[in-house]
Design brief:
The structure is a single chain. The protein is α+β, with helices and mostly antiparallel strands and 703 residues long. The chain is 23% helix and 32% strand. Strands 6, 7, 8, 9, 12, 13, 15, 16, 20 and 21 form a ten-stranded antiparallel beta sheet that branches. Strands 22-23-24-27-28-29-30-31 form an eight-stranded parallel barrel, surrounded by four helices. The two termini are 42 Å apart. The site of alpha-D-galactopyranose (GLA) has 11 residues, from loops.
């Protein structure tokens, strides 16, 4: 709901209130937190009161969209310059309420209703700024725009999608930081005086920093306290700056990062920031995650898939790498029969002359040396076993050793006069050029329309380098979205699994197109428990693609039980990444059992509410619970850490159940109330194999 009273703007969904007001032409932020429940008049007055108290000069004031060079010396959210000046000062002109959230050509939350549009103007720069706000059941969407009204060129160095100002307080900042193979570590630190930045200049969102931050009151925990989550629906360079000032006020700017040189805006041109999503919770991090998850399931993920149970896949990568031929793949497909697997995915190596990673990216036609009869024999064999078929692409990449590069060396991102930097022996295509995107689309369409393919794994295996301008970086990301648009329109039934050397591009814009993302290249269950736990801070389990792989694990060399591997992988989109043609009978039995169980539990796992009960970041012990929306079922996975002698019992108190209802815990053969399970808890076995796992099924029962 949008309430407006004499230049006071109050946005609320009954759960949170967000408000700001106009004073002497400037837009001041006044409140973000639990919904103000008093009458509209009192609520907005109290909001105004707070605003007035802090409005003691620009350097201490809390602004909706702070600019640079006009007396506010903290990190600005907008930096615009002209030939005349490098300062900006936008003042309020008016507002509109748009009936629905306008489409602005980039992925954003879907089905947004009434949208508040604020117009501000800087007469010296001769530019207008527009701020957009849409309230959702579980959060707030914000973005901004700048339009050059004048004849002379304007330069834009920064335009945050949103700035959120927090009043004097003690805050912690929580980011999801990592590296290849170990994405999404939860890093929590006090917001002390100064600026803390989470960002990427890699051209993609990156393994290093996710475009996500949580501001938590210092005492907030997993299920208590006020927390505010900010996430950017964008897949390129981004910047989240958090400045705690000398008065312990906190400013958070979130937006795309515009690189050196800035963006030049000609007469009438508009720059649109990507959309930021802002979520408030007074039930700690868990409450915030559940809101993000609901919001993304309902308003972000492609509706064609958001409600569907994901197929259980077996992927060829770790079992074959580049080394396969028709015969080997037919055996692989035969091996997948009878295991409860839905889809066989042929990973890298099927195209061009790709025997290793030095060649053929860009040549999206079948390698007839490896597959002399094309994909037909493979797909027919899949059909014979009632399996579907999926295939891998890396659309944005080109190897210098490829037909594509030989024909179009200028298609790769490069600076004239310099050798391009190679990473994994490859360049990145200049997707800011429509003809490049069109040509890749043509090749991919050729494969997807010639064969019965229901699944695509879309990979992206290197950051960008040799980009000639700030505009190119933005154009590249838009080009990626345009290819996604074309493909999802032309092949609406094809499920796309996103990937970027694992979770190097795990962001909401990718989720808009690819309903699930390969969470990490690290398939070791102990490591994966950390990555999945971290990713779940913001992203729903139905977006995490997790595979059971062979042991000793290829990334860590560790051997964990098949059961543990299955239990951890089941917390998301379960799949397999091992040679099903060569595994033992015992392993076949276990896969068949795991997939059968998973199928029964998938509705709860993929659409339920997540409760993180024990964090692996503390001592390696892990426990997560998913509860169905109607609270009738719960699915719990517990993983022990490294065993030591004389361990204390691990008592896990469940959450989210109906306290008065009776539940049956299948694996313990126990009947008790929700209260017993939530307040008394269950004792889980800590003695046994290192990293052993338990799965518990809890179901509401009559008495
Ligand atoms: C990336 C992906 C892997 C696999 C390889 C293939 O590393 O993350 O899953 O697809 O590329 O080259």
């Amino acid at each position: 709901m949008i309430q407006i009273l004499d230049k006071i703007f109050h946005l609320t969904n009954g759960d949170f209130s967000y408000s700001f007001y106009v004073k002497e032409g400037k837009l001041y932020h006044s409140y973000f937190g639990k919904a103000l429940t008093v009458s509209e008049e009192i609520a907005t007055q109290s909001v105004l009161g707070r605003g007035l108290l802090i409005n003691c000069g620009r350097d201490a004031a809390q602004f909706e969209m702070p600019e640079s060079g006009r007396g506010d010396f903290r990190v600005p959210a907008a930096v615009v310059r002209s030939e005349k000046t490098i300062s900006a000062d936008f003042t309020y002109c008016g507002y509109e309420i748009l009936p629905t959230k306008p489409n602005f050509g980039m992925p954003s939350l879907r089905d947004g209703g009434e949208t508040l549009k604020i117009t501000l103007k800087d007469d010296v720069l001769n530019a207008e700024m527009y701020l957009y706000y849409t309230v959702f059941e579980n959060g707030l969407a914000r973005r901004s725009e700048i339009k050059n009204l004048g004849k002379s060129v304007l330069y834009l160095d920064k335009l945050s999608s949103a700035c959120v100002e927090f009043p004097k307080g003690r805050y912690d900042l929580i980011g999801l930081n990592g590296r290849w193979g170990r994405e999404c570590n939860i890093v929590r630190a006090a917001a002390t005086c100064g600026v803390k930045t989470f960002s990427s200049v890699r051209g993609v969102t990156s393994h290093q920093h996710n475009p996500f931050v949580t501001v938590a009151e210092y005492s907030a925990g997993e299920e208590n306290g006020e927390v505010f989550g900010l996430n950017l629906i964008y897949s390129g360079n981004f910047e989240i700056e958090c400045e705690s000032d000398e008065k312990s006020q906190l400013r958070v700017n979130i937006g795309a990062k515009i690189m050196h040189g800035g963006i030049a805006l000609g007469k009438g041109e508009i720059f649109s920031s990507p959309e930021a999503v802002i979520v408030y919770s007074d039930c700690g991090l868990g409450g915030m995650s559940r809101k993000f998850h609901r919001l993304y399931r309902k308003n972000l993920i492609n509706p064609a898939f958001a409600d569907k149970i994901r197929p259980v896949v077996v992927n060829s990568w770790e079992s074959c790498y580049f080394d396969f031929n028709e015969d080997k793949l037919l055996k692989f497909i035969d091996g997948a029969k009878g295991l409860g697997i839905d889809t066989v995915v042929l990973d890298d190596g099927w195209f061009g002359r790709r025997d290793n990673d030095t060649s053929s990216l860009g040549d999206w036609f079948i390698d007839k040396n490896k597959l002399p009869h094309g994909l037909d024999p493979l797909i027919s064999r899949c059909k014979k076993h009632s399996l579907k078929f999926g295939i891998w692409f890396e659309p944005e990449a080109v190897n210098p050793d490829s037909e594509m590069y030989k024909a179009h060396p200028d298609w790769a991102l490069k600076t004239d006069g310099r050798e391009g930097i190679r990473m994994r022996n490859q360049f990145t295509l200049d997707f800011s050029r429509a003809e490049v995107v069109d040509s890749v689309f043509k090749m991919m369409s050729e494969i997807l329309s010639s064969y019965d393919i229901s699944y695509v794994k879309w990979d992206m295996n290197r950051p960008l380098s040799d980009v000639v301008s700030a505009e190119k970086y933005l154009g590249f990301v838009k080009g990626v979205y345009s290819l996604y648009e074309k493909l999802t329109k032309a092949f609406p039934d094809v499920l796309i699994e996103g990937c970027s050397s694992g979770g190097g591009r795990f962001d909401p814009a990718m989720l808009y197109y690819s309903p699930m993302i390969w969470t990490s290249d690290d398939t070791d269950a102990f490591e994966r428990a950390h990555v999945q736990y971290g990713a779940s801070l913001c992203y729903p389990l139905q977006t995490l693609s997790n595979h059971v792989s062979v042991c000793p694990n290829h990334q860590t060399g560790r051997t964990l039980s098949f059961h543990t591997r299955g239990a951890i992988a089941s917390l998301g989109c379960l799949g397999y990444e091992l040679n099903v043609a060569e595994i033992s009978e015992e392993e076949r039995k276990q896969i068949a059992e795991q997939t059968a169980l998973y199928r029964k539990d998938a509705e709860v796992i993929l659409k339920g509410d997540l409760y993180r009960l024990i964090s692996p970041f503390e001592n390696g012990v892990f426990c997560e619970e998913v509860v169905s929306e109607d609270k009738s079922k719960a699915y719990v996975v517990f993983m022990r850490g490294l065993n030591v002698c004389n361990m204390p019992l691990e008592r896990v108190r469940l959450k989210g159940l109906d306290a008065t209802a009776m539940y049956y815990v299948k694996e313990k053969n126990v009947k008790c109330t929700g209260a017993d399970l939530m307040y008394g808890g269950l004792c889980l076995e800590v003695y046994g194999e290192d990293f052993g796992a338990e799965i518990l099924h809890i179901e509401r029962t009559e008495n």
